[in-house]
Amino acid sequence: xxxxxxxxxxxxxxxAGTAIAAPLPADTGLPWNLSAAQVTATCKQEIARTQKAxxxxxxxxxxxxxxxxxxxxxxxxxxxxxALAAQVLLMNISVQKDVRGASAGCVDEVNAFSxxxxxxxxxxxxxxxxxKTAPMPAERRLAQLYAESGRRTGAGLPAAxxxxxxxxxxxxxxxxxxxxRALGEDKSSITIDAKEAESLPPAFVRTLKPTTxxxxxxxxxxxxxxxxxxxxxxxxxxxxxxxxxxxxGQRNVKRLADAVALRMQIAHALGFKTWAAYQLxxxxxxxxxxxxxxxxxxxSVLLPKARTEVAVLAAMKKADGDQTPFASPDYNFYEHRxxxxxxxxxxxxxxxxxxxxxxxxxxxxxxxxxxGVHFEExxxxxxxxxxxxxxxxxxxxxxxxxxxxxxxxxxREGKFNHFATFAIRAxxxxxxxxxxxxxxxxxxxxxxxxxxxxxxxxxxxxTFFHEFGHLMHQTLSRxxxxxxxxxxxxxxxxxxxxxxxxxxxxxxxILKEVSANIKTGEPLPDALIKKIIAAKHVADGVYxxxxxxxxxxxxxxxxxxxSLDPTKLWFDLKSQMTxxxxxxxxxxxxxxxxxxxxxxxxxxxxxxxxxxxQDMFSVFQKGGLEDPATGMHYRKEILEPGALVEPDALLHxxxxxxxxxxxxxxxxxxxxx
Length: 673
Known about the structure:
By secondary structure, the protein is an alpha+beta fold.
């Protein structure tokens, strides 16, 4: 089974008056201050210890009880995952480059061990036997997932073929690590002159590094939206956009192409026609054809809307006296202007209502009330870098401690460059050596100007609420084994709970709750809330057709029997499926981290799971957005089971009926077939 378990998000604050029984200490037991040499040494030691334990279990496979042996395997690998939790995460978070490098090496070693374990024929036989003889449903479910993993790594193949698949999977894991590390280490920037800086928000300019006659702008996730949405100069926008879409460069393009080729070899060796077919074999969607049909439906209906949206923006550009064709670097700027003029929504003015402290405390308050939990900040935090905060989680009703999470919200050199939550250590509790979960938000919010708090966009707030939903999925699980814990569900369901929760950030009462003007303390006024909601769907055509394009690119890349040029495929599909052409001279796929971070032949899940998300939201619309009873029903039926139950059954238990597509089609403006 895969031991490096990537999750999705977390957060925290104090709920006044909530009783806490035996609060957790700051020490999670994870060693954040390891040197590079210590990371390497402990990684090798722990892998060797675990391999020795697995070898001993393998030797008993022919005689001992299969369920007992499987539990021993699970315990040994979970212990290893817990022992190396810090070592594998430091690649993304350490302030020291040599530690990040050593951690990347450890990740490769852990992934190689994981592949070897999954392909172990004795472990595979143990899992198959336990599926038949395990007395408890959780044990049989655990056996099923181990057997699936073994089948997908060639554990049932003859030794020579099995060794070949293992070697290919090991090479693939190394490529993926190198791809992600190249993005994390990227230091791309552009320079702008004083004139070009005039249209940028003053608070943003004050965070930039001055140069002779201008400023240096770092090109990354934390600066992209503010720069492209406000920069008046088309030339400066283009410079930024081109650099942003060349992060990772040709080396990452080659890594992606090599990974796609390896994936196809692996799929063929395991009896699948394509990598997409291999991946979808254990997902809800099941077949690439079903996914592509779904994506084509979404795109065909929304592309005309996208073209209309872009035509409006192109007319605005021409009205400015710029007769050049409307291009991708223009989109954010004119879409932002449209919101300001037609809908009177000024994103920079809106930021004044979302100071980071208010957003964090309010979001935490909502989740605490809705899900019956309590968050308490631990000071001082025992973490990996200055500015990282730590929280303890407990159950509100009983006061029993649940686990911890960390917040690492702002960019720094070498850090993971997107926004996600990592399940640092999964929980478990059924067998001896039970463990409490630890998670972290690793994010890149825009920094505040010196001496002042960061101010967030509404989009930042929506993302935060979404990601916190992932944390709850992970933290509140009650599954007895780490393999079954939290968000280790089928991948095309994993986004659904958090996508459902995004709806909260568009409700007037909730928007008032999470906002407070930085100067007056007043919440968002009703008139501005109405404008925000009115503008919500202004860019749906562009947004969802682009999502359909990303997903189709991923599926096509991994569904072809012949090798495809990743860049040519990107340009061809984007011109067919979106209203915006790709800027020449860019290699955007070099920065498409999802394809090398676990979402290969799986990106469609963002749109696919939205079907489930909107149907689940209908339950809260009836029961109440902050109704504790409805929230507890959601906690019990969706969050707590983890992977103990297939998503179809989770949904049926929560909804009380089969899933309906109607709320999804209504949400994105598509007529139901």
